[in-house]
Amino acid sequence: MPTMDDVARIAGVSVSTVSHVLNGTRNVNPTTRQRVDAAIVEIGYRRNVVARSLAAGRTNTVGLSIAALTNPYFGSLVHAVERRLSEAGYVLILGDSHDEPVSERRVTDSLLDRQVDGMLLAPSAGSESSAIPEIVRSGTPLVLIDRMLDLPCDQVGPENDASAYELTAHLLDAGHRRIAIVRGIEGISSTTERFDGYARALADRGIELDPALVLDGRSNVEVAESAVRELMSSPYHPSALVSMNNSMTIGSLKAVRGLGMSIPADLAFVCYDDFEWSDLFEPRLTAAAQDVQTIGRTAADLLLGRIEGRDDAPRSIRVPTTFAHRNSCGCSSTPAPSER
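Above: the chain sequence. Below: its structure as tokens.
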């Protein structure tokens, strides 16, 4: 493996000059720099980042544990985080938790073993008693992202309760009374908060919560599709449906289409999470759109601050959603379906 000594010998300079060129620690004559760069290319020299990190006490890496492959929304969130960290000179190491506590613990332990400088975590159900205590014990700076917990650490996530309330109230204002919900994974804070918003909107209108209209979609396309298909096959199916994340929205739309039904003629539909292409197909989805870029960059900034030694009180930041009114709710183009 080529060494700095090899680069120095071929370029005809000292090892310290090669080091200054590589690390930018001193101005080097342009001609000399060109000779060093040419020697590096000629022999294929690469810096030993691991050794340098050990000497500096940092790896310039950040770990992120998130269900990145099983939820389309998280892909955009990962991109926002990575972009901000890259600007700051950090490399993101991603581990997919699959929203399972055992997988999450395996991922976070692996990231800690790699001596990441900080950790971002979208906590699965049960993180409080498994992954999080171990991260805290290690002394590694931690920021929770997307899902909020009652813990003394920095965290950034979307507004859930009020957004779900607004979506449900919108359907109620359009005359619907039998409104079903497809909710996410049990035990996750975002699932609980969005369901609470839905239930509160019904209660404020004096409508009793009907357990038959509460579907557990488990944040999964196939599970949501099966649950919605069964509900909508009933002769007493609801007139409206609220889906609480984009994976379940895809499953819900597949179920409705598979039954030969139409949105909004047969079912008014609104959803939490927007799609980049929502305006490009029918039905155009009425949605609560998350500000993914702000969530990602804010979480990264909080973590970078902790890595640099910021020791003020933990911050809990809620990023508002935007209500995108389109035609899937049916209120602007067709009357509400008659109650069944």
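The longest helix spans residues 72-87.
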